[in-house]
Amino acid sequence: IEERFSTIVGVDTVRRPKPDPEGARVALARLGVGALHAVFVGDTIMDVIAGRGAGMRTIAVAHGHGDPGALKAAEPDIIIPDLAPLPKAVRSL
To answer: Cβ(22)–Cβ(16) under 8 Å?
Structure first.
């Protein structure tokens, strides 16, 4: 599956894992993309915090590991119920 991704950043890549934005910043640097041209998609409050900390817009997916109420309280740019509406959500940002 790795060949389907331009870069992979995991907990073993960074010194400070989520919610610290280091991982998001490493991914942006590797891809040569600015934060304003990227979206952080995740299913936990830590994902929202990490994305915002890196200056990215955030999309929270409510069907994952995170509590939907906590996700809403983290104030992502968009909350989607599952991954099906993700392309439309990204285009709307």
So the answer is: yes
